[in-house]
Amino acid sequence: MVDWNRFPSHILPKLKSHYAVKSMRREPKLFGDTSNFTSIDYGDVIHVGDRYFLIVGYTKEGRFGIDEQPKQWVPKVYDLESGERKIAKLTFHETYKLTIGGLEVTCYRNPEKEAQVIELVKGNPFFMQGYSALDEAGNLVRVLEVVQGMRLDKYLENMGATHKEYFEIHCKGMLVNFLDSVRGISLLHAHGLKHGDIRRDHIYVDHEDGRFRWIDFDYDFYLPERPFALDLFGLGNVLLFILGRKNFRPSDILQDPELGPEVFAKLDTNDLSLVAADRVFNMQKIYPYIPDCLNDILLHFSAGTDVMYDSVDEFHDDLVACIDKI
Amino acid sequence: MARWEKILVAVDEGETSLRALRYVGRMTAAMTDLSICLLNIYPEPPPDFYTNGGVLAVYQAEKEKRADMIFAEAERVLLEAGIQPGLIERNTLLAAGKTISQMVLDVQREGNFGTVVVGKRGVSKAEEFLFGSISNALARHSSSFTTWVVG
Prior knowledge:
The structure holds two protein chains of two kinds. Chain A is α+β, with helices and mostly antiparallel strands. Chain A folds into two domains: 1-90, no CATH class; 149-325, Transferase(Phosphotransferase), domain 1, CATH 1.10.510. Chain A is built from ten helices and 13 strands. By secondary structure, chain B is of the alpha/beta class. Chain B has one domain: Rossmann fold. Chain B is 44% helix and 21% strand. Chain B is built from five helices and five strands; from the N terminus they run βαβαβαβααβ. Chain B has a five-stranded parallel beta sheet with strand order 3-2-1-4-5, with helices on both faces. Classes of the chains: A alpha+beta, B alpha/beta. Chains A and B meet through strand 7 and helix 6 of A and helix 4 of B.
């Protein structure tokens, strides 16, 4: 028999009737302290701020090409008062070294920074929404709205039968939406905040209005002289993906029947990424119909560049000027 | 235009700083109408500093102690070159909410220094993109003063 007296009475109707609890063979536990998140399981309840949330699943994340792993510190939750589904991000401080092109950068999970971003972008449609609250132990938990949409990379893959068709019909619209994303990052930087993990799968395309929404702001990094360099690097990578609809390693080009040795032979090391020489940034060599102005922006991120962007605003202004032309 | 003989030298513990100081010593040893300010800027602590129980005052005290050692070595180099001790000043600052190059530029402007001296490490494009280059940043922004970038 479950001892329901451990739970406040006002959440009992929703708690008792939820499938996550009805299907359990053990008693749900109530956690006011979420420090040890690995002990919090499916069907348990966490108490954060003035709310009680039932754990109904876990979010997953994997780097591209790697199996997705459940993130135990990011459970999917059910608000036992409002009945809404949310995502809770429990406090998890982690430090690790990221190696980019042989260079080492120290990265951090920074819940406090994510909370600051969430506060700053409240009501901004180009960012994931939510709020932060403390648990009983003082852990900063972020309670997030579920973004109803599709990852940008998956969204783009479905557009146009061929790249040319995608580029001629859809790409400009994607660039216009991406401009709003770039302005969003500029807003963060103006307030001394970073996104921290700009990737093509950290933009969601809203099912209803098609807007691009940034998600996941808890990464941080320590680059005192170029604090926003990795955000800029990420924006360059996202633009590359929007223009190409995929990333091309030199070996991909060689193996692609539509490109093959003829295109491969035109490439040199200056065409590869400035920071990590794992992808081709000189997209015009792959798709010659990409206009100079867009390719020139990409070339700022290539190994052959003599001019680098110092700020997101410079990147934004070039992109605006180019979109006006095409 | 500020007097070029009012010189700001950005220093750290690296060999490039010592090379820059030796260069300043050779260029200015015979001058009497001269002032040299040794400047050491240190960055804000990393993002996990406070969650790991760090205290800013302790961090600053450590950095300032290290700066004193850097200054002592820098002064030794300048004195050996023949610079008079009374012509040398010291300044240590935390780059609070700013990059180190922005702080150097702020000190230059506020102190009306005519010459700013930095050592040049020699970095790859990728390193410059990720970690920055103080010498390149200063060279780009030196519109009302002279920058000596010593390689």
